[in-house]
Amino acid sequence: MAFFTHHICRGLSSSAVRHVVIKHVTIIGGGQMGAGIAQVAASTGHAVTLVDTNEDILKKAVKGIEGNLKRVVKKKFADKPEAGEEFLQKAMQNVSISTDAGSVVQGTDLVVEAIVENLKVKQDLFGGLDKVAPAHTIFASNTSSLSITDIASSTSRLDRFGGLHFFNPVPVMRLVEVIATSSTSQETFDSLLNFSKMLGKTSVSCKDTPGFIVNRLLLPYILDAVRMYERGDGSKEDIDIAMKLGCGYPMGPFELSDYVGLDTMKFIMDGWSAANPDNPMFAQSEVLNKLVAEGKFGKKTGEGFYKY
Ligand code: CAA
Description:
The chain contains twelve helices and ten strands. It is an alpha/beta fold. Strand 3, helix 1 (32-43) and strand 4 form a beta-alpha-beta unit. Belongs to the 3-hydroxyacyl-CoA dehydrogenase family. Homodimer. Interacts with GLUD1; this interaction inhibits the activation of glutamate dehydrogenase 1 (GLUD1). The record marks 165 as: Important for catalytic activity.
């Protein structure tokens, strides 16, 4: 694994922008989000190492990335098949896999974590990586609902720690939420903004508050739809059609829940409802709890609100 040097860029305007140029990215977690981030980073010219403890997951992720890129190439390079092949080869050459995070981060500029939504597991991971990663390496979490400040607390690089929250499917969704904690340095924040731009994404920022912008608004909306269905106010099919045709949303709340994963949604809501037990917006849903208890997590398990 090559080591990369620390580059500082200065903008030409009076408000000088300093940021670390991200050449090599380590993405921890070979699930849907990690693989999606890896795909976008590799196809925008970054060297990417995708890390997971399970080699089979990594192999599946690489296969998925290649399949997705082939689809992109077919459409984008329809008239130039040779250029398309070159793009595909280059992007795939940018992707490597590893089950050893400790050795990979020794040569990386940025670590993006996209593992299970469990604070202790994330803290343990980052605490360990902090000891072996070079001083300039920036750490970022793709957490959907946990506090970046809490995750960062297991490291000694609070100034080089932030949030980079992507959306599913990562290659299609154009947004990244970039989160600075009260300890994140301006240079780190600018580096994360610049990296998001390099990925071709539009970024927004908000404070390190639960759910950031999107999930804080999206989850209560989805849960309200589930409560309408529980009360029998409307069928899930009609609620989905209503929000698609009445609001122009690409998916209705039940389709989107199945797509995001009911387990993920429940995890987020459980955290918020424990922290705000008196807020009806975060109240438990019997239907959601039952589906999750039955292992019906949505599209990924073949059944959620709908069957697949
Ligand atoms: N990877 C890469 N590309 C994909 C893809 C994937 N997994 N899924 C779809 N695409 C591409 C397709 O190739 C297609 O590309 P072109 O437009 O170039 O042809 C395009 O996306 C549209 O796909 P489809 O025609 O297959 O299907 P669609 O039009 O029904 O769109 C969708 C599918 C993009 C998922 C759309 O339904 C959608 O935008 N849904 C809402 C998704 C959403 O809200 N995501 C955010 C969830 S919240 C979250 O992620 C945060 C969290 O922390 C929980």
